[in-house]
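Example record

Each entry pairs one chain with its bound ligand, Phenylacetyl coenzyme A.
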Amino acid sequence: MSPVEMNLEARFDAYVAEEKKIEPKDWMPDAYRKTLIRQISQHAHSEIVGMLPEGNWISRAPSLKRKAILLAKVQDEAGHGLYLYSAAETLGVTRDQMLDDLHTGKAKYSSIFNYPTLTWADMGAVGWLVDGAAIMNQVPLCKCSYGPYARAMVRVCKEESFHQRQGFQVMLNLAQGTPEQKAMAQDALNRWWWPSLMMFGPNDSDSPHSAQSMKWNIKRFSNDELRQRFVDMTVPQAELLGLTIPDPDLRWNEERGHYDFGEIQWEEFYNVIKGNGPCNKERLAARVKAHEDGAWGREAANAYAQKQQAKKANATTHAA
Ligand code: FAQ
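Structure tokens for the complex follow.
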């Protein structure tokens, strides 16, 4: 690194340490830019792949009201994807490049969306647990050092909070329903609990990016800290629902002031993120097909934008 670059980097570190925001045109270390592109694009991919498991139930929602709520939620996730792709684009990567990386399997998206949604109760469990975990992870990102990401997160978190509540309400209705409905809610909790804990990423000791991302104020809390907060928040909610968290080692630890919980099956996590989860192939195929089927829409939008630009240029020439 040249002395000029060293100086720039020291100033950058000091600026970030003062809780100031980095904006797209500011100088930033290459590795900071690269980490943000990686994290924000993976996050964007998660939002749009995340539409698929719930999209699966729109046509089978048990009432018109539930259908409308689910439709709105799934649309919100598309919006989150858009804000996030736009935030990543400010770092110099194109949307085409990001989508290409997703479609070729080069880019990751959240492990959680590679599990199937088998019953209506899964709509409750996804909202309650998956959106609950997403909020826990994303509220601190509202204070991340990169301005466009932090600002996108403010709106995302407000919407995620509505998503979490609608999921909890689905679970509550089922848990207070017939014994069959309660059993369906319990079964969904059994299947979604452990994958939800995996969403926070590997244990801190096995997380290659955490230390640097925390120094740069991108991540404000470690994977394990956020996972613990999620467990502490969710156990009383499960009690309120009258459901049992599928972990025989789960117990309140008076000394720590937190719940202790069992060992996560990391082998399963790594298997899923390598592309071998129950639905990886199906999810990727659905995204590629949606992209190909949408080509005409992108072409039409581009043609329209070009026409508008030409019209504007024409009007300016005539006015001059
Ligand atoms: N799945 O060193 P770390 C949502 C990868 S919420 C897949 O700890 P980092 C809302 C990680 O990328 C879900 N891969 O990495 C919604 C890295 O691999 P790489 C999305 C994972 O980045 C709800 C490697 O493991 N939320 O979409 C996962 O410091 C309902 C080592 O890990 C976000 O993306 C995982 N779970 O920390 C939508 C939040 N965990 O890149 C629809 C923003 C780790 O070197 C319906 N992201 N990996 O190849 C983050 O906060 C961070 O990126 C973490 C990972 C915490 C996910």
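The longest strand covers residues 251-253.
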